[in-house]
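Recall that a protein's primary structure is simply its ordered list of amino acids. Everything else, from secondary elements to tertiary packing, is in principle encoded there. The following example makes that idea concrete.
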Amino acid sequence: MKNGRTKNDAADVKTVTIIQWMVDAARGKYWTPMNLVRSINGLWFASSHQVWMTIVNNLHELCKHPEYLPLLREEIGEQSIITPEVVENLPLLDSFMKETSRMNAFDSVAVRRKALKPFTFSDGGPHIPVGNVACVPQAAILLDEMNYPNPMEFDGFRFFTAKPDSAAAVAMPGKERSKFTDVSEKYPVWGYGSWAW
């Protein structure tokens, strides 16, 4: 085949696309072709604005808190090309970005799920009738003092595991690094549950 592709490449691509995943997951009367198209369009629109909002929010926080600039510049150093591997090794920047997203939630609620059949939580808690939508109160969680001390105060190094006196910071005992891309019940920015992993 041309360009070094094999017959199996097309099958591999088919299984990893969002369109194929949604078609394969579509069950029941709700998932008509029109509802699939609407859902895919919704995902595309939702995913395209988050990158730009993240960039704008981070630039805005940098303008409001210029004291972080020298440390972030020191950490980034002379990197001429920023790759995912380089970003993995920038914990100060990662913490700053996570705190920015915590303080600037895209939406007040997240993880919206519509009940296609009656649902009762495993602890016997709330019952969700068919057609109702259950959500997670994202903004409330991200600004909850039980989850984050001084939640209304911006702390760009809140999620950093070391004392940020310099890019070569000393690790703080008992504190585990929490990355921008991590998923947890206290940080539902990326969703939660098996779909977010």
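Residues 33-64 form the longest helix (32 residues). The two ends are 35 Å apart (CA to CA).
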